[in-house]
Specification:
heterodimer; B: Alpha-Beta Plaits; four-stranded antiparallel β-sheet
């Protein structure tokens, strides 16, 4: 291999010195472009999004439809009237059920995505390289969060399209009259989905920055989301006063959002794991937005103030 | 030429009770190649990290291009490779540079040009994780060159390069300096610094031990004398050059701290004193001698080392 390092351009007018002083918003825009470029080419992103979409399709539609066709009580649908089962698979049911898998399974996947998106850069040394490019560390991490927000919007849109396509397909196959969901209900469900996923993704990004390690970040995040919150809610049942705390946990807010949208109102009357009715929709939405904002602020502040390893 | 690009004033970094960088005050002038020289763990990288805003000083201050270290303006006009290259392993070399170009608001053509400059264009489409250590290092230099920075900070840039790659890297650095870039280069390779740097700062144990031009550091010229009998030769040398200027070396030779112009007189006096002169020649001290002298011994009580 020829290892000759070519000599620099003969015209040595330094381009960087001619660049105009950059405003904060321009720096943020540049960082977002850079982060979108690398995130969109990251196989892990597509694997995680793919896993979520497949899981959602399987648990929301495929298994229920197979249970309906076979008339058996598979997948927790024992003793459920077949027409009730089919009603959950109609387009009309989408606003009720869109968020059902999001508080726990979908949320866990988005938490993994957030933690890997920020935590991996510490091992790769890419935060250091990015910090040396000049947009400033707040803008760099802000760009990451904005890019993740774009991903969240895309995932929610893809989930909705998958659900709608599946529901229309099942209704057609079963020769049901197509009953479209209410527009306002659909908008509410989409908004709730965005809030749930944004909260979990931002929480993941924060844990990735706090731990500066993808493995520790993902591990701690999952233990919290899947185990600790449930255990605390269990303890709250026997310990007076603790429910005031557990009622405000991120998972409670996400589950309550799904519950408020009608997630409990399924054929088996139980909803998916993680769906709760602890809080009303309004407080749940406020809490989710609050957690997302706090996580984002902590992420940017920590990334900006700490020494880059 | 003497416009100051980098200054530090008693720059200090402590990690707990360990002082990694201890009151370092250095200056880098525009257009020069400044060698930052020291053994591993001396505090070179920590100092550079503070100059780039990656680490906060515990005390002291620094200015880079007239601004605070790490301020967007200072970083924007600085290109750096520090503690090895850090890139996305799943992206190709070209796409990695395109990410960094976007951070700077440059377009893809700039990234491609930087890639060509370190001769990685032919492997630009391969994933970064498949690169050899030398290729990764060169990609790091390419990222530092993006956008034609005024100041280049290169932390041990020849790490992992084979001899040909090291020579090419030196050529590149010399050419960059000729084009008006200021280069701040850290190294533990003395030959590298000796060949390409205008000035060097030597750091040891976190303290800047000396800062000088290469010529000044190698400075005091000496004569190497082999003559017999040795005791006669030593006496003559002390008479000619002064009592402190003659040093006995292993193997019976003498090093006499005197200019080359003193050689004829020394030879005559040796012969007159009845000594057989076997060899007399100017002994230029290598930077390596100076370096070990400075870093091993107490900076004040510099002891002579033998010729190597």
């Amino acid at each position: 291999m020829d290892q000759t390092l070519n000599s620099p351009h003969p015209t040595g007018s330094p381009a960087r010195s001619d660049a105009p002083a950059q405003s904060a918003s321009a720096a943020l825009a540049r960082s977002t472009r850079a982060e979108l470029f690398r995130l969109s080419r990251w196989p892990v992103l597509w694997v995680l999004v793919g896993v979520w979409l497949v899981l959602n399709l399987l648990f929301a539609y495929v298994f229920s439809y197979l249970a309906y066709r076979s008339g058996s009580g598979a997948f927790g649908t024992a003793d459920v009237a077949p027409d009730r089962l089919l009603a959950d698979l109609a387009p009309e049911a989408i606003p009720r059920l869109l968020t059902n898998g999001m508080p726990m399974f979908g949320g866990a996947i988005m938490l993994i995505l957030g933690a890997l998106a920020t935590g991996s850069g510490y091992g790769w040394g890419t935060w250091k390289t990015a910090a040396l490019q000049g947009p400033g560390r707040p803008a760099t991490m802000g760009g990451t969060l904005l890019s993740l927000a774009v991903v969240v919007v895309g995932v929610v849109a893809a989930t909705f399209v998958t659900d709608l396509g599946s529901a229309v397909l099942i209704s057609s196959v079963e020769s049901q009259t197509l009953a479209w969901p209410e527009l306002a209900d659909t908008a509410r469900a989409l908004g709730g989905s965005l809030l749930i996923f944004a909260m979990w993704t931002a929480a993941g990004a924060m844990i990735g920055v706090v731990t500066r390690s993808p493995a520790v970040g993902v591990g701690l995040g999952l233990v919290w989301a899947l185990a600790v919150e449930n255990l605390l809610r269990g303890v709250a049942g026997v310990l007076d006063g603790l429910e005031y705390v557990t009622d405000l946990l991120p998972g409670t807010a996400a589950g309550s959002m799904a519950g408020a949208l009608g997630g409990m109102d399924t054929a088996d009357g139980d909803g998916a794991p993680g769906v709760l009715t602890v809080l009303d929709g309004g407080p749940a939405a406020l809490l989710l937005a609050g957690y997302a904002v706090v996580a984002a602020v902590v992420t940017v502040a920590l990334a900006s103030r700490r020494d880059v390893e | 030429m003497n416009e100051t690009i980098v200054t530090t004033n008693r720059l200090t970094k402590r990690y707990g009770s360990h002082t990694a960088v201890d009151a370092v005050s250095l200056t880098v002038h525009r257009g020069e190649v400044y060698g930052f020289l020291g053994p591993n763990g001396a505090g070179k990288t920590t100092t550079l990290r503070m100059l780039l805003g990656l680490a906060r000083p515990s005390s002291g201050s620094a200015t880079v291009l007239g601004r605070a270290p790490g301020s967007p303006d200072a970083v924007h006009h600085t290109g750096a490779l520090i503690e090895g290259p850090g890139f996305f392993p799943y992206l190709s070399g070209r796409n990695n540079l395109r990410v960094m170009a976007r951070f700077q608001g440059l377009d893809d053509a700039d990234a491609d040009a930087a890639l060509a400059r370190v001769d990685l264009a032919s492997r630009g489409s391969d994933p970064f994780r498949s690169y050899s250590l030398g290729m990764k290092q060169r990609l790091g230099v390419a990222a530092a060159l993006l956008g034609e920075p005024d100041l280049l900070v290169l932390d041990e840039p020849t790490n992992g390069l084979d001899p040909a790659g090291m020579a090419d890297m030196r050529t590149l650095i010399v050419n960059l300096a000729r084009d008006g870039h200021t280069v701040l280069l850290s190294s533990h390779l003395l030959a590298e610094v000796q060949d390409i740097c205008d000035r060097i700062g030597v750091i040891s144990g976190g303290r800047l031990v000396t800062e000088s031009t290469v010529a000044d550091l190698r400075g005091r010229s000496a004569l190497l004398v082999r003559a017999e009998p040795v005791d006669v030769a030593l006496a003559v040398a002390m008479k000619v050059a002064g009592d402190d200027a003659a040093h006995l070396l292993d193997g019976g030779g003498l090093r006499v701290d005197a200019p080359a112009a003193a050689a004829p007189r020394l030879t005559r006096d040796l012969v007159t004193a009845g000594a057989d002169v076997l060899e007399i020649r100017p002994a230029e001290r290598s930077l390596e001698d100076v370096f070990f002298e400075i870093t091993d011994a107490d900076p004040v009580g510099r002891s002579s080392t033998e010729e190597s």
